[in-house]
Amino acid sequence: MGSPFRSRSISPMASLWPTFLVLALSASSLVNADDTSTVYEVLQEYDFPIGLLPAGVTSYEFDNSTGKFTVHLNGTCSFKIDSYELKYKSTVKGVIAKDKLSKLSGIQVKVLFLWLSIVEVTRDEDELEFSVGIASANFPVSNFVECPICGCGFDCKDVDLRKGRLSRRFSSS
After folding, report:
1. Do 71 and 62 form a contact (C-beta atoms < 8 A)?
2. Cα–Cα distance between 140 and 29 in angstroms, integer?
3. Which of 93, 150, 161, 171 has the highest CB neighbour number within 10 Å of its CB?
4. At the top level of its lineage, which domain of life is listed (predicted)?
5. What domains sit in the chain, N to C, each tagged with a CATH number?
């Protein structure tokens, strides 16, 4: 007569539950776009203007305890500001602290004919210093009070930004 108990093998997914639980609990300090703050409000909390990121961020993650963040855009984003051309990858990462963005990845600026990665941004009163590692440039904070729009930067005409999506209205003139 056989045993009334059947042996069951544990599925690989069941054995991962403790790992998922630990990850979920350790991620409790993470904030994302579904919570109360937008990524633009997080920038302001650390004394940065919202215009450091283009309009239309689709989501973000932020670890309040370490300052590490990841910002997701709908795709790559490029535009010109004055004589500079900027390019944002679809994912931008870094660490934020009061008046300092460091360990940045995913943002590049064209200087002459070279694309250089912006690795750090610091704020000193009313100026922002953008560092590409070997060089830096300063700009007034007031240049970044509005978010640039992918494709046209700050000089956009007939552009309407609704619900995080960009739509262009064409007018016949």
Report:
1. no
2. 33
3. 150
4. Eukaryota
5. 29-164 (2.30.240)
* Angle, CA 51 vertex, CA 158 and CA 152 arms, to 5°: 35
The count of other CB atoms within 10 Å of the CB of residue 95 is 15
| pLDDT > 60? residue 98 | yes
Residue 96: how many CB atoms within 10 A of its CB? 23
Of 72, 126, 57, 65, nearest to 95 by C-alpha is 65
Q: pLDDT-derived band of residue 111, with 50, 70 and 90 as boundaries?
A: confident
Contact 101, 81 (CB under 8 A): no
Mean pLDDT of the chain: 76
Q: How far apart are CA 59 and CA 33, in angstroms?
A: 5
What's the confidence (pLDDT) of residue 151?
87
End-to-end CA distance of the chain: 91
Cβ partners under 8 Å of residue 93, min gap 6: 68, 69, 70, 71, 103, 104, 105, 106
